[in-house]
């Protein structure tokens, strides 16, 4: 397999039935620069034009964008454009000794290096706790004594894909892992969080990763612009201080079809967009449109946006 280049568009539009006098927002919509991912251009556009805006880097190395709109408005649109090149799965990572080590040896507590101590944050449970007896029992079926880490993670990926039903609208962002375990249905964010809870229940470091998945239209049909969705998956820490990312929603390791935006301990660390508004409005509506389109040459997607000073649920 060879690298693939994508033009990504992510548009979020809020509409209100009364004026919004002030709107504060923070978004994670700029793809990360990684060893296997190169960002050729990125811009976040906001309408109405913000009175104040800035970009920064959070504690996990993600780029975020902050804005404050003080112009009265009944519609707010945030659109992120980027051109990203993604490499196939690094076979050296998958087949290397760190991935092949017995999973018990991949616990940060067992490694003891400075990097392991930093990774230990990703072992901690959330508050409220997500590691329940059901999670521990599910993980124990996969992580048998001495099993190579990559083999166990691959098995966990397949089991979640097989045991859980993808059903859009079955859950909300606030739905707990224990509820997903009981119902055996959800969406990509749920399956990533189930996998993360399983890994953490065993003392392994796991993180939540957000991004996009390039999807192909059904045979004989044209791709519909804007019909894609944001996506989420999980990653497990390896003793050589690298992370192995996997996608339980699609039963595969993260590869050249995945565009990585941001990562953290959970969804709440890296939501695409969140904010606060001041208004007397009693009704609001949100519409999200995402498009991930392959292109042949990175230069094809640059256009005028390459000169901009602002860098900003699929199955």
Automatic annotation (TrEMBL):
Limits of the Transglutaminase-like domain = 180-250
SMART domains, per the entry:
TGc
At the top level, the lineage of the source is: Bacteria
Q: Pfam family example for this protein?
A: Bact_transglu_N
**Which stretches of sequence are listed as region Disordered?**
288-315
InterPro entries the UniProt entry points to = Bac_transglu_N, Papain-like_cys_pep_sf, Transglutaminase-like
User: What name goes with this protein?
Assistant: Transglutaminase-like domain-containing protein
**Organism from which the protein derives:** Gordonia paraffinivorans NBRC 108238
Ranked from the top, the taxonomy reads: Bacteria, Bacillati, Actinomycetota, Actinomycetes, Mycobacteriales
């Amino acid at each position: 397999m060879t690298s693939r280049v994508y033009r990504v568009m992510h548009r979020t539009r809020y509409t209100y039935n009364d004026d919004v006098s002030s709107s504060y927002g923070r978004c994670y919509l700029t793809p990360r620069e990684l060893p296997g991912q190169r960002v050729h251009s990125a811009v976040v556009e906001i309408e109405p034009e913000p009175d104040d805006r800035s970009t920064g880097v959070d504690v996990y190395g993600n780029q975020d964008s902050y804005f404050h709109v003080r112009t009265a408005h009944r519609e707010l649109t945030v659109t992120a454009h980027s051109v990203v090149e993604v490499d196939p799965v690094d076979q050296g990572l998958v087949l290397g000794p760190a991935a092949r080590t017995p999973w018990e040896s991949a616990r940060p507590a067992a490694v003891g290096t400075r990097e392991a101590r930093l990774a230990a944050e990703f072992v901690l449970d959330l508050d409220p706790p997500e590691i329940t007896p059901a999670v521990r029992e599910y993980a124990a079926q996969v992580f048998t004594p001495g099993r190579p880490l990559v083999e166990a993670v691959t098995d966990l990926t397949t089991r979640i894909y097989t045991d859980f039903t993808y059903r859009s609208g079955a859950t909300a962002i606030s739905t707990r892992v224990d509820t997903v375990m009981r119902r055996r249905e959800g969406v990509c964010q749920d399956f990533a969080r189930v996998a993360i809870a399983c890994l953490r229940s065993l003392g392994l470091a796991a993180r939540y990763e957000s991004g996009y998945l390039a999807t192909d239209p059904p045979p004989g049909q044209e791709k519909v612009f804007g019909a894609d969705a944001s996506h989420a998956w999980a990653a497990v820490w390896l003793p050589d201080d690298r992370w192995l990312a996997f996608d339980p929603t699609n039963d595969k390791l993260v590869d050249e079809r995945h565009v990585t935006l941001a990562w953290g301990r959970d969804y709440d660390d890296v939501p695409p967009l969140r904010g606060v508004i001041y208004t007397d409005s009693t009704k609001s509506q949100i519409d999200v449109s995402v498009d991930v389109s392959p292109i042949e040459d990175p230069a094809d997607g640059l256009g005028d946006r390459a000169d901009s000073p602002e860098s900003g649920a699929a199955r």
